[in-house]
Structures are given as structure tokens and as C-alpha cells.
Amino acid sequence: MEQQATNLMANILLVEDDDDLAELVLMHLKFQGHKVTRVARCDDALTIYQQQAFDLLVLDRGLPDGDGLDICHHLRQEQNWTPVLVLTARDSEMDKVDGLEAGVDDYITKPFSVLEFQARVRNILRRVNQVSGSPTADAETNETSMNFGLLKITPELHQVSLDDRDVTLTATEFTLLKFLASRPGRVYSKDELLGHVWNTEHSGYHHTVCSTINRLRTKLKHPSSEHRFIQTVWGVGYKFQPYQ
């Protein structure tokens, strides 16, 4: 376990105004080997982001000067794809959907299990660092890329391009795309995707899969083509379909 924590050691920004909860989260993140900076306001978070780079942002929503999601919105508008984990008491389905649509990578509601929180952090950082995996013979490949006509995926560089145009993806979006593209035409259910990409078997997170799929489709839409690389197989799940 110590070796795993060392391999995934990260610089984390915690945005939480509850002092007791912040101390608990700080303790467990540091136990995992991470460096943690804590602030309690949206404006402080945005200011410190201009001063240094972080590997993960853990944020509350109900902050003294606004909704923590505003931080995520700002980062995504600036094309900053630092992973974001929301830790909040807002537990309605719509709140979770709002968070996922804003571009967060995961969403945990209070009260929460410390073990689950640690696992979610590890999973996000693992997705960020994940570069292994070999495409099948259905794709034209070399050691570093997966080529599907207009679409090129380069796992080792964590890059995606569509018709020679760079496509910026979050760590979760990239991991999902690479997983689906590794077996073109193979249909995966939401439960299978949750297990392989999010490392969870909890069916309550089906909306997470749907939101991530929708964001990927938007980012992979070619202005002169109606082709969808990620297609829905109704009643079954999703598949990656190379450009014909």
C-alpha cells in the first residue's frame, strides 16, 4: 500500500470551509502520501491556481463566496482539465448531474466513508496516470498511437486529435475513450464501464457514465460529418465505432 501511495503521490488543492471536515480530509490525503493545500473560498482557490499547478482539486459546493462548481466552470473555460472531485452535502440527482455536466470527474456526498473517499482519489489519479493498454488489430497502430481515420489517440502522451485538431479531454474522458477504442465494435453495458473505468460496481453512478459519454460525443463531433465515434446500442450499452 505504501508503494501505491508513493507512485500516485499528488499535489492536491482542497477547497473546504468546514474546519473539522477539512482537517479530516487533510489527514487522510496526507496519509496517502499527498501534498495538500487548503483554502476556504472560491476566490482564494482561483488565486492560488494562478500561482502553482495541482494534480487534483477536491472542492465543496457551499462555500462562503459562492458555489464551488463555479471554480470548475472557470477552469474548464480556461481549457484547464485538472481532475475535480466534489465533496458536498448536496445529494439530489440534479445536483450530481449539474456537477458532472460542469466537468467534474467524481462526486461524493456527505456524510461519506473515508475508505470510499481514499479509493475515489486513487482511482482519479490512476486514470490520470494510466497510459498502458494495447489496441486491437482493428486499428492501424504503432507503439504510441491508435489511428481510426480522422481520429488519433496517443495514450503515452495523453493526446487525442480529430482531423489534425487537438481535442482536450479530462482524465476520465480520455480513459473511457481509450477503453472503448481498444475494442472497436464491442458493446459495453453501463455496469461494465463503471467497473473498468470508474472501478466501482455501484449502479447508482449510471448517470456518471451517461454524462461522460455525452461530453465525449460533443468533443468528438466533426463539423462536416454526422459520424458518432461512440454509439448507443439501445437496451445494452455503448460501443466505439471507427470512422468509415
From TrEMBL:
<dbReference type="GO" id="GO:0000156">
    <property type="term" value="F:phosphorelay response regulator activity"/>
</dbReference>
<feature type="DNA-binding region" description="OmpR/PhoB-type">
    <location>
        <begin position="143"/>
        <end position="242"/>
    </location>
</feature>
<dbReference type="InterPro" id="IPR011006">
    <property type="entry name" value="CheY-like_superfamily"/>
</dbReference>
<dbReference type="Pfam" id="PF00072">
    <property type="entry name" value="Response_reg"/>
</dbReference>
<dbReference type="GO" id="GO:0032993">
    <property type="term" value="C:protein-DNA complex"/>
</dbReference>
<dbReference type="GO" id="GO:0000976">
    <property type="term" value="F:transcription cis-regulatory region binding"/>
</dbReference>
<dbReference type="Pfam" id="PF00486">
    <property type="entry name" value="Trans_reg_C"/>
</dbReference>
<dbReference type="InterPro" id="IPR016032">
    <property type="entry name" value="Sig_transdc_resp-reg_C-effctor"/>
</dbReference>
<comment type="function">
    <text>This protein is a positive regulator for the phosphate regulon. Transcription of this operon is positively regulated by PhoB and PhoR when phosphate is limited.</text>
</comment>
<dbReference type="GO" id="GO:0006355">
    <property type="term" value="P:regulation of DNA-templated transcription"/>
</dbReference>
<dbReference type="InterPro" id="IPR039420">
    <property type="entry name" value="WalR-like"/>
</dbReference>
<feature type="domain" description="OmpR/PhoB-type">
    <location>
        <begin position="143"/>
        <end position="242"/>
    </location>
</feature>
<dbReference type="InterPro" id="IPR036388">
    <property type="entry name" value="WH-like_DNA-bd_sf"/>
</dbReference>
<dbReference type="InterPro" id="IPR001867">
    <property type="entry name" value="OmpR/PhoB-type_DNA-bd"/>
</dbReference>
<keyword id="KW-0804">Transcription</keyword>
<dbReference type="GO" id="GO:0005829">
    <property type="term" value="C:cytosol"/>
</dbReference>
<keyword id="KW-0597">Phosphoprotein</keyword>
<keyword id="KW-0805">Transcription regulation</keyword>
<keyword id="KW-0238">DNA-binding</keyword>
<protein>
    <recommendedName>
        <fullName>Phosphate regulon transcriptional regulatory protein PhoB</fullName>
    </recommendedName>
</protein>
<keyword id="KW-0902">Two-component regulatory system</keyword>
<feature type="domain" description="Response regulatory">
    <location>
        <begin position="11"/>
        <end position="125"/>
    </location>
</feature>
<feature type="modified residue" description="4-aspartylphosphate">
    <location>
        <position position="60"/>
    </location>
</feature>
<dbReference type="InterPro" id="IPR001789">
    <property type="entry name" value="Sig_transdc_resp-reg_receiver"/>
</dbReference>
